[in-house]
Specification:
This protein is α+β, with helices and mostly antiparallel strands. 27% of the residues lie in helices and 15% in strands. It has a three-stranded antiparallel beta sheet, covered by helices on one side.
Length: 123
């Protein structure tokens, strides 16, 4: 998979008309990705590289749930109800800089270096 499988995601939550939007950054991990995989077929969701927005939104939601932050930020505990409140989402690096993604969801301006060919040249 070409996607960054455990992205750090900055999101804006609009918890309701009488509350100010909340900006928060969460680090997703394998637990969030596994939760997506377990629900994907049941909900007829696309694979991550074909449905990057739902994938990232669910990872962010599940990370908030895993960290016990849903109620604190005025979000319901089910994804279908919470999803409309997650109004902006972007992958970011460790410094909070937004990452630009290619058409496959792979960061193209990250500080993680470039892909290399591990094959040793013949001598």
């Amino acid at each position: 998979m070409a996607l960054k499988t455990q992205p750090r995601l900055a999101l804006t939550i609009e918890p309701g008309p009488d509350r100010e939007p909340i900006e928060i950054t969460v680090q997703t991990d394998n637990r969030d990705a596994v939760a997506y995989d377990l629900l994907r077929e049941r909900n007829n969701w696309p694979v991550p590289d074909k449905g990057i927005f739902i994938w990232q939104t669910y990872l962010a939601f599940h990370a908030l749930k895993r960290l016990g932050l849903l109620a604190q930020h005025g979000l319901p505990s089910d994804f279908k109800s919470a999803q409309p409140m997650l109004v902006h989402l972007a992958p970011v690096d460790e410094d909070g800089n937004q990452l630009e993604l290619d058409e496959h969801g792979k960061p193209i301006n990250s500080n993680q270096g470039e892909d290399v060919d591990p094959t040793q040249p013949e001598s």
